[in-house]
Amino acid sequence: MIDTPLMRQYQALKASYPHAILFFRLGDFYEMFGDDAKTASPILGLLLTARQAIPMCGVPAHSASNYIAKLLKAGHKVAVAEQMEDPSQVKGLVRRQVIRLVTPGTVVEDELLEAVAANYLVSLELDWVGWGLACMEISTGEFWATQVLNDLGHRQLFSLLARLDPAEIVVSKQDADTLRLKTAVGPKTALSFLDFSKAPNAGSNERPSWTGSPPWHNRHLAARAALAVGRYVVETQSHLSDLLTPSYREIQEEMLLDEAAIRTLELVGSSTGQRRHSLWGLLDHCRTSMGSRRLRSWILHPLLDIGEIERRQNTVEELLDRAQSRKVLAQIFGEIADIERVVSRLGTRAASPRDLAALRNSLLQTDAFRSWLCEAGPASALSSYQPVLEGLAQPLEDVRHLLERSLADRPPQRLSDGGIIRPGYDTRLDELMSIKNDGQKYIETLEEQERRSTGIGSLKIGYNSVFGYYIEVTRPHLSKVPQRFTRKQTLANAERFITPELKELEVKMLGAQDKAVRLEAELFDEVRRRALQAHRALLRFAALLAEIDALSSFAETAFLHEYVKPRVDLSHELTIEEGRHPMVECTLPAGAFVPNSLSLNGPDPQVLILTGPNMGGKSTFLRQNALIALMAQIGSFVPAKTATVGIVDKILTRIGSQDALSRNESTFMVEMRETAHILSSATLRSLLILDEVGRGTSTFDGISIAWAVIEHLSAAYRTAREGAPAEASPRGPRVLFATHYFELTELAELLPGVRNANVEAREWTDAEGRTEVVFLHKIATGPADRSFGIHVAQLAGLPAACLNRAREILSGLENKSRAMPKGSPLPNAPLGTEPALPLFEDHPVLREIRLLHPDEITPLTALERIHRWKKGL
Fold this sequence. Notes:
Layout: H1 5-16, E1 20-26, E2 29-33, H2 34-44, E3 49-51, E4 54-60, H3 64-73, E5 77-83, E6 96-102, E7 121-127, E8 130-137, E9 142-149, H4 155-164, E10 168-171, H5 173-179, H6 181-185, E11 190-193, H7 220-237, E12 247-248, E13 256-257, H8 259-264, H9 279-283, H10 289-300, H11 306-321, H12 323-333, H13 339-347, H14 353-363, H15 366-375, H16 386-406, H17 427-454, E14 460-464, E15 468-474, E16 486-490, E17 494-498, H18 500-532, H19 535-561, E18 567-569, E19 574-579, E20 596-600, E21 607-611, H20 618-633, E22 642-646, E23 650-654, H21 667-681, E24 687-691, H22 699-713, H23 715-721, E25 734-738, H24 747-750, E26 754-765, E27 771-781, H25 789-796, H26 800-818, H27 844-850, H28 859-872
Parallel strand pairs: 1-5, 7-10, 9-12, 10-11, 13-23, 18-22, 21-25, 21-26, 23-24, 24-25
Antiparallel strand pairs: 1-2, 2-4, 3-4, 5-6, 7-8, 8-9, 14-15, 15-17, 16-17, 19-20, 19-22, 26-27
């Protein structure tokens, strides 16, 4: 690059941020130079130019956020270098400084964020005993940390990451490699590497005071992760907002959902990536962005606490019974802005005049909201919110009064536009504005005087930023211009002049205007600072609004779709009468969806093997029961006639086919990995949804694997295998297992607690002898006898010759199958026996090893057992 003071300044700043695109402020533009310009220009659709052989491009400063959003989406970070001095007040080079490094997890501007989704920045800390995770949402002030010990395979960690779906993860390079994060989290999540060995808070050896408080005792991994994410924010944003103090969160108190369950159950996004066809889209009738985000968080973090579930249910029930009250609440919430994000921008000093106006207008709804709450009465489920609101009344009133007195009714977006502060708020500003406004009147008076004195009726006084105020006279009247006019500029059809009187007036007016702009900026900063003093009250108020908005949304959904209040208890039951798939039924005409019932555990089966035709509705039935269980545990009503849900601690799914080319894994390998995860993670309270396990390999291999999986999950089989006393009703995870392997239906005769069910279909023949199949979509007891796969192939449009040949082959295979003894492909060995004689006499150590599950013990326990076995040999 050329050696000039400006380019030396640019290169010094760029050297500090080599991995970011540098936005270098020059006047009203941000310029990019060199390789940054080459990289950014095609992404931003800018023309790449050059000055003295240096590639360059630029964007207007007032619309920079839109361009930054495109660069972030393309996977780049952006360093923003601002002019730290007023160019008009400086001789020589203006001082510039990078005030912010914009990364995917640190954005706060509305233009860069999705209104209804969180934008999480996560940090990870690993050691040999477990892991710590800190989660920060800079745009809302959410900040918490957690830790888990003895998480074999980091399953709980990956489950939590799947639920958070972070925009950015801060992690050491070593830990990222250990976890294989690049392939685990996918391309949407940016990884930023941090040296965790450095001091946790930049510029100081003192740890924040919160690290010594009780929640953090003996939680060093969580504390270190929180310190690391705080340091990263300081490095990228130049400061850490006072709003961001972490709390400790116990994630073991939430239902565990892994990435497969979130994806296959379409909890927050459909298979096509659309929110409106997901469970979140169905339940979201919120009127505020805060409520929508809270609802999404509830869906991804279902409760295990029955008391909290019932509290939500009772509130939903009351709101459901008060239809008119819900309408009033919707009107109130319709006037409320995203208070969480406005307060967060206050904390990062990025709040605009319109942000504060939106906060003021939201606080104007406080009285109406308080009246709405009071109407519910002291016995209402909503009464618990009243003391919370009353405790916030004074600070909220103070902020509202401040903003009403200080802000104009409709302030501009940018501070530089002026007109932000309300007249009467500050006498100094009022005086300057009076001079400025009166000066305009003087200009108009002077213009009229000059027209009369010169006899030039078209004479006019104008202004531009280069020449200031001027008198413009068109060419036909130049002969009338008096000598006291001094020529300033020549145009094609006119001349521009200045007079001593006009110059004096200009100095007076522009001086007042400049002073007014600076004073208004000072006053606005003071208003922001004073409003920020109430940030705790504002955020608690926002949290209260978000919660009631989400609960009201549950009530609205229950009203629209005739949902019922489920019973949630500590039993092991999952009993659903006439359940419906919440999303599928919305795509059909009213009443067209066929409801189905389910009863698992208790006196009922623990494992249900579901067979039946393709397109019969097996997958829909599996998914709807998992969704109903989840909806019950977030406090929502459910699509059923009645429902009883014994607390589910995990929903684990193996549905659909998906390869993982980035990890060099086939569809079958992915299927087996998911199945292995389910078998090693399931507990007695888990709900397992398995669809077509074993279909990705040869028939006999697939049947064998599926058979063994069901045996492994069967409580009766495990009880017999492990030599424990037989129970009348042994407990195990609740399992729904859909398959096309009819051989598996024999397990219902071999294993107590395993039952068969099928999706009904009927054949009928018309007058011309053509056979049709009608799918009834009804679940019936007992195994299915056919899959009707060839009929589905016919519906799909396979050629007639191909279909006829398929029928011939099927007939031959069925005849061959009938000639084989029942169950011949698989051993129907009695429970607890081996399929063949062992080669050696069973030794106690061998027997213990055979019963051992490596994925269920810690490394320390394994080492202790090895020492004990060695002593016993």
